Amino acid sequence: MAVTKNNFFGLVGETPQIQQLKSVVQQVAPTDITVLVTGESGTGKELIANAIHSLSSRRDKSLITVNCGAIPEGIFESEVFGHVRGAFTSADRTRKGYFETAHGSSIFLDEIGEMPLEAQAKVLRVLEMGEFMKVGSSHNEKVDVRVIAATNKDLSEAVSTGRFRQDLFFRLKAVNIYLPPLRNRKDDIPLLVEHFLADTCQRNDIPCPHITPEAMNLLKNAYWEGNVRELKHFLDSLVILERGRTLDEHIVGGYLRQNERRTPHLPVHVPKGSPELDRELLVSLLLDLKRDIGDIKNHLQIAGSANLPATWMPGREIIQTEPQVTLEEMEKEQIHKSLQEVRGNRRKAAEILGISERTLYRKLKEYNIS
């Protein structure tokens, strides 16, 4: 990818945070030091990995990208480290894993916080000794690979709860590059808007629209929970649906309001003692709760005011004395309910809950659910 004044391997921006980040990338890229890239989802962590690889001595070979959160736990080691013939029932041939494929190049371990503990020990050995063992093998194999990892999670918190190895964490964060959220670098938004508009129009062969200062100001002050990725997808839709029109504050404001309605921010109190609760399961529980509240409102409307007690007056608070249900109890009950619906089929239960099967297994163990 071309590098221009404002476009550094796809990383667009000129704020002090981005300038410093570019400088760090240029310093570490020519070395073989391990790099950990952190930041919220959508901030551009993969762009940093690509920039480091592209500026390194390994750039003649392809960067191997591994999404650790997308590989089922049961086959993780086989996929990442490979296996020998006969290692398990369906292993009819010896297979290379991602590390062996990345020999002489760089490997990008995205979402490394999702990596199973057993595999973490093997990654640590690669970093320390430059060797690994295939599944079913009895001897180590040497590998020359540069490791770049990324996560949107707090690995120090994962270490404290036993979900991530402390020794691997210390080894990974030899250099930690932090990508700030878009809301903390608003002055880069006009450059990003210009870049994405030009890219979208070129790809779709349509004229690049004019955007008014008032509309740009709306974009600068939007929250962008999904960061740069959300901004890009928003502009893609805007340009294609409003083809040929000037993008003023009325058009942009209307789309921003629609975007907010699609992704409402529900007020949720999360207990301080439960930071390990998975966001995906929490969202599922909250949606169920929202539906239940809607059902209650419907029943009240049907019942009508005639059935209300004589002592009830509009505006009077109804005080409930029932004990408050914790999020942990809500989680456990929802998991029980889903498993009962599918007669214990954990794969189907995970689909109903909207979480990965790996997350469900971890929750079953955490709550001692058989």
Secondary structure layout plus pairing:
Elements: E1 7-8, E2 11-12, H1 16-28, E3 35-39, H2 45-54, E4 64-67, H3 76-81, H4 98-101, E5 106-110, H5 117-129, E6 131-132, E7 141-142, E8 146-151, H6 155-160, H7 166-172, E9 175-179, H8 189-204, H9 213-221, H10 227-241, H11 249-262, H12 279-303, H13 327-341, H14 346-353, H15 357-366
Parallel strand pairs: 3-8, 3-9, 4-5, 5-8
Antiparallel strand pairs: 1-2, 6-7
Helix pairs in contact: 8-10, 9-11, 13-14, 14-15
Q: How would you describe this protein?
A:
The protein is α/β, with parallel strands linked by helices and 370 residues long. The chain folds into three domains: 7-86 and 94-180, Rossmann fold (3-Layer(aba) Sandwich), CATH 3.40.50.300; 183-262, Helicase, Ruva Protein, domain 3, CATH 1.10.8; 272-302 and 325-370, Orthogonal Bundle (Arc Repressor Mutant, subunit A), CATH 1.10.10.60. It is built from 15 helices and nine strands. The protein has helices spanning 16-28, 45-54, 76-81, 98-101, 117-129, 155-160, 166-172, 189-204, 213-221, 227-241, 249-262, 279-303, 327-341, 346-353, 357-366; strands at residues 7-8, 11-12, 35-39, 64-67, 106-110, 131-132, 141-142, 146-151, 175-179. The radius of gyration is 25 Å and the shape is globular. One of its GO terms (biological process) is regulation of DNA-templated transcription. InterPro entries: AAA+_ATPase, AAA_lid_NorR, Homeodomain-like_sf, HTH_Fis, P-loop_NTPase, Sigma_54_int, Sigma_54_int_dom_ATP-bd_1. This is Sigma-54-dependent Fis family transcriptional regulator.
